[in-house]
Amino acid sequence: MNNILARIKALRQDINNLNYKYYVLDQSEVSDYEFDKMLEELKQLEKEYPEYDDPNSPSHRVGGQITKNFPTVVHEKRMYSLDNSYSFEDIKDWAERISKSIHDSVEYVCELKYDGLSISILYENGVLKQAITRGDGFQGDDVTPNVRTIRSVPLELSGKYPERFFIRGEIIMPKKSLEKLNIERIKEGLEPYANPRNTASGSLKLQDNTEVAKRGLDCYLYYIITEDMQYSTQWDSLRNAKEMGFKVGNYARLCSGLDEVYKFIEHWNTERHHLPFEIDGIVVKVNSISEQEELGYTAKSPRWSIAYKFKAEKAETQLLSVDYQVGRTGAITPVANLKPVQLAGTTVKRASLHNEDFIANLDLRSNDIVFVEKGGEIIPKIVDVNYDKREPGTVKLEFIKNCPVCGTPLIRKEGEAAHFCPNEENCLPQVVGRLEHFVSRKAMNIDSVGAETVLMLHEKNLVRTIADFYDLRKELLIDLDRMADKSAQNMINGIEKSKEIPFEKVLYALGIRHVGETTAKKLAKRFKSIDKLREADMEDLVNTEDVGEKIALSIKEYFSNQEHLELIERLRKSGLQFESEDTQTVISDILAGKSFLFTGKLTAFTREQAEEMVEQNGGKNASAVSKNLNYLVVGEKPGSKFKKAQQLGTVTILDEYQFLNLIDI
Ligand code: AMP
Ligand code: ZN
User: Fold this and answer.
1) Ligand nearest to the CA of 281
2) What confidence tier does 479 reach under pLDDT thresholds 50, 70, 90?
3) What's the 310 CA to ligand 1 centre distance in angstroms?
């Protein structure tokens, strides 16, 4: 190695080390001046010898990179949510369920529930490779350049580490960082940010990572995922993470029984206000990893972990008036205007009143003194009325009878809580709301057409329905709005590109009432085309995962409207995707009616590939060992599933090759 490279490496190591001491251990060893001098020297050398530059050099912590679009990345292992609980009773029930399926003396690890956004960071050979946001749990955004600027996230690891692993944790905005940021904003005449979690989340999505670097984000890690496990408990994994140089904090505690868990919760319930960052609860985890595996997962969350959420903080204030908002589906939401009040660090001025019944149940009257509550990211809500403080002679709040925008009499369907404005065609917030929804990121993702453009296009009568977007011509845009050639072209390109958006998103984009993103996905997967979905009867629909009667009815109603059918025809002619591309090739039905589970390290194929093979051959993948399980496929060093299956005696145990024989490969 030549001298220059050696010097660069030495500087990087020293700087990484100082960063670690300062941002992880809270120790400062050199003056700012000395630190800056080293950094300057490193930057200078990297500039002179660009061949030695490296994205993981600590010199890049200050930013200098612009990311226009964060690529979507599929998580190799899904990022689950946590089940919530609000009382010791809930925790006790959870622990009892665990004792029943494992044994009575389970050890738990209690951790703080950091109130930020979760992140999954990939390390290969001790070097940071990629950082992905949680997204919908299945796929998230690659925000690597931004995460590199977070000083407490190691770029290179020390000690012993698995060759390849993901580490998951929470990116947070410490209270001090938010304060500092807000002082700057106020100086610039900007509105201060209210909520550290949202600000952390917004910061991580900034395009310019020089800005991200200035935001003072921090990152606590709590979960390692790797094929080559070097420890057998959560507790050890935390210790190992610490040794590798991650910020883990010294807050976690190993508990041998529920009493210790309760004590931990009680302690932090009051002590949390003294932490340098916000937490919204405590996470309890089963310590043993083989026991975790044995417990497995529900559709949404691990069975081996539960979150205890702290009670929301309450404040008392006065109801001033009620506004009624009209959504894109015509649903009316009553919103209370409140006398401003401080609550959990923010000023609350408005709160949702949900619907007529909610107002009636509270027996809400004008000028009532009410209690508002706020929990985490949830919009503040009115939870009660202080009836003792009610003035005599106040009148009950009457829900409006007509649409506040278009004046059409409102309707309320049987069995539904919300009122609707039925004037789908001409009620402005509905028409514009549908258009905005259509172009939005999770729908057709036409980002060259923003909310203001939608409004303009609608005003100029160019776009009245979603199908009109596809009739737009560049010349028309330029003429009508004196739009620049380039932005008109961008719009047309964006619209053109949206024709490739897959069916599941198109289905979501149509804006069928009650059909959210996930439901659209499930419907697209099951019915595969808009025609099949249209032809489906109630029973068919209700038999789809996550689809209940309410959603099914709404779908039927949508397709019974002639105008919707015409709209779909127009869109189809424009070239939108109304059929799913069959990604799941069916090979055989040889495994029909059989369920499979895999344990241990597979050598001939990955677990994902194995599960795909099961589905391709008509079988089902199970999530845990039970009497209903037909086959357990056992790889190297199998976990507790193996033992459990042996004990049950009803499960056929196969090795990988026997499994392949089953499907005749
Ligand atoms: P929730 O978003 O309320 O469903 O809670 C689940 C989320 O809590 C996870 O996705 C994590 O982002 C977050 N979380 C914060 N601290 C922890 C922790 N110590 N262990 C596990 N999850 C945590
Ligand atoms: Zn209306």
Assistant:
1) 1
2) confident
3) 13
From 617, 621, 628, 622, select the one nearest 651 (Cα to Cα).
628
* 294/97 Cα distance (integer angstroms): 13
Q: Which residue has the higher pLDDT, 265 or 624?
A: 265
Is 113 one of the catalytic residues? yes
Q: Ligand 2 centre and the CA of 527: distance in Å?
A: 33
Specify the pairing of strand 279-286 against strand 346-352: unpaired
The values of phi and psi at residue 129, to 5°, are: -110, -45
Question: Has residue 584 got a pLDDT over 70?
Answer: no
Strands of 108-114's sheet, edge to edge? 84-85, 305-309, 279-286, 108-114, 253-255
Give the pLDDT confidence score for residue 141 in this predicted structure: 94
Which atom of ligand 1 lies nearest, measured to the CA of 134?
A: 10
In which band, very low, low, confident or very high, does the pLDDT at 375 lie, cut at 50, 70 and 90? low
What pLDDT sits at residue 345?
64
Using alpha carbons, list the distances in angstroms from residue 166 to 128, 136, 225: 10, 17, 5
Task: Name the pLDDT band for 548 (thresholds 50, 70, 90).
Answer: confident
Cβ within 8 Å of residue 177, ≥6 positions away = 215, 216, 217, 218
- CA neighbor of 220 nearest in space, from 117, 110, 75: 117
Catalytic residue chosen out of the listed positions 113, 505, 521, 641: 113
> Is 90 exceeded by the pLDDT of residue 583?
no
Whether 611 shows a pLDDT value over 50: the answer reads yes
Residue 101: predicted pLDDT: 87
Tokens of 512: 């069928």
H/E stretch holding 225: strand 218-226
- Atom 12 of ligand 1, nearest CA residue: 118
Instruction: Determine the pLDDT at residue 601.
Output: 82
Query: Domains, the chain, ranges and CATH?
Result: 2-62 (1.10.287.610), 72-309 (3.30.470.30), 314-389 (2.40.50.140), 428-500 (1.10.150.20), 503-573 (1.10.150.20), 595-662 (3.40.50.10190)
Poorest-pLDDT segment among 8-12, 93-97, 179-183: 179-183
Q: What's the predicted TM-score (pTM) here?
A: 0.56
Element (H, E) at 255: strand 253-255
The finding on whether 114 has its CB within 6 A of some atom of ligand 1 is yes
Exposure pattern of 460-480 as b/e (b: 16+ CB <10 Å)?
eebbebbbbbbebeeeebeee
Distance set, CA 171 to CA 82, 168, 364 (Å): 17, 10, 40
Mean per-residue pLDDT of the chain: 90
Report whether pLDDT(403) > 50.
yes
- Catalogue the E-assigned strands of 522-641: 595-599, 620-621, 631-634
At position 107, the amino acid (one-letter code) is E
- For 496, residues 6+ apart whose C-beta sits below 8 A from its C-beta are none
Q: What end-to-end distance do the CA atoms of the chain give, in Å?
A: 50
